[in-house]
Amino acid sequence: MSQISLISGSTYQRTTKRILDLAGSLALIVIFIVPAIVIAIIIKITSKGPVFADVPERIGQYNEKFKMYKFRSMIANAHVLLRKDPKLRELYKEYKKGSYKLKNDPRITPIGTFIRKHSLDELPQLLNVLKGDMSLVGPRAYYPDELENQQKEYPHVRKLVSDVLSVKPGITGLWQVNGRSKIHFDERIVIDAKYVKSISLFEDIGIILKTPYVMLTGKGAV
Q1: Global pTM value
Q2: pLDDT, average across residues 113-132
Q3: What pLDDT, in 10s, does the model give residues 135-176?
């Protein structure tokens, strides 16, 4: 097996990338275990509801659904309320118009604002990486209705969506370190598809190295 195949291409995706995921996620769990416990306690004592977000399954590799773990940053049952509560009908329209992101979301809790800005709500996804549902680096994992509706709005990106779903979604990724929530779906898919076509050890390490800056500054967060 050549050295090049271990750092790029299909062999990297099958073997080296998984080793990097396991080693990296275990190291990060050790580093962030105390902050994660503190966040969990604050969530529990400052708002009603579970510690983890009570949201539907996401779409992962090969269009398979999986349960993504995230710290709850919103009021309990926020996902369903947005779609079903008549009082939030206009907010839901704004949500869809903004590529499934809201600049001023009244459902977010006080601690939620902080952990979302610095991506600390994503820490439990390290468990998804250990399970093999996700990778440290990869495309965004979408909700089923989000992915379906966005493809209706941007039909020209359907082939790119297919490419993106051929790999595991990531905790961080190329679009996350290049604008985060400021980037709309059609642009995001182009960026993620570009990543899929050029996956390599060097690309992943570069994205991982850029991620702490994005977390600390909260740049592009909603």
Answers
A1: 0.88
A2: 95
A3: 999 999 999 988 998 999 999 999 999 999 999 999 999 988
User: Is 19 a residue whose pLDDT tops 80?
Assistant: yes
Residues 181 and 222 sit within 8 Å (Cβ to Cβ) = yes
Q: Are 72 and 51 in contact (CB under 8 A)?
A: yes
Is residue 35 a contact partner of residue 68, using CB atoms and an 8 Å limit? no
Cα angle value 165/72/117 (rounded, 5°): 80
